[in-house]
Amino acid sequence: MATVREVQVTFDCHDPMRVATFWCSVLGYEFPPVPEGFASWSEFDAASDTPGHAAACVDPTGRGPRLYFQAVPEGKTVKNRLHLDVRVGTGLTGSERLAALRAESARLELLGAVQERVMPANGAEESCIVMRDIEGNEFCLD
Fold first, then answer.
1. Whole-angstrom Cα distance, residue 135 to residue 48?
2. In 3D, which of 104, 107, 140 has the Cα closest to residue 125?
3. In the chain, domain spans
4. CATH says 8-71 is which class?
5. d(CA 24, CA 97)
6. Is the pTM of this model over 0.85?
7. Alpha-carbon span 93 to 56, nearest angstrom
């Protein structure tokens, strides 16, 4: 039997702090405590050998995975092979679900997300909305 381990989700991006700040706002996550000896993450970053290289955010409840954002030189060129589903419609169906998804989509668009398409319920699956974060990574409102 396999041992269950913690999971961290890593994002390749151009601006780790900007993307981390976006996802903190989306998920209600927080930046982890600043390392001892530093007054802020900016101060810690400035002391690094590679300033601007990484950022992270964590679920304050401890239930969700840690998100890690690392700077990479190349841009995004194809569809993600893995994406996050932000579960805002759990337990809702029909028009009530779609209204909750649309409301969350509107909130996230104010943060810089882009709505790509609405996938309406089809009898087998409930509605979801495909979005892109501030660097173009796909995710779904589910």
1. 24
2. 140
3. 8-71, 84-141
4. alpha beta
5. 23
6. yes
7. 34
Strands 138-141 and 128-132: antiparallel
Six-digit token pair at 12? 């390749």
CA distance 94 to 61: 30
DSSP state string for 62-107: S-SPEEEEEE-SSPP-S--SS-EEE--STT--HHHHHHHHHHHHHH
Radius of gyration of the chain (CA): 17
Longest dimension (CA), the chain: 56
Residue with tokens 């000896």: 37
Pairing of strands 138-141, 84-86: parallel
Over its length of 142 residues, how does the chain's per-residue pLDDT go in tens digits? Answer: 778 778 899 999 999 999 999 999 999 999 999 889 988 888 888 888 887 789 999 999 999 999 999 999 888 888 888 899 999 999 999 999 999 999 999 999 999 999 999 998 888 889 999 999 999 999 999 9
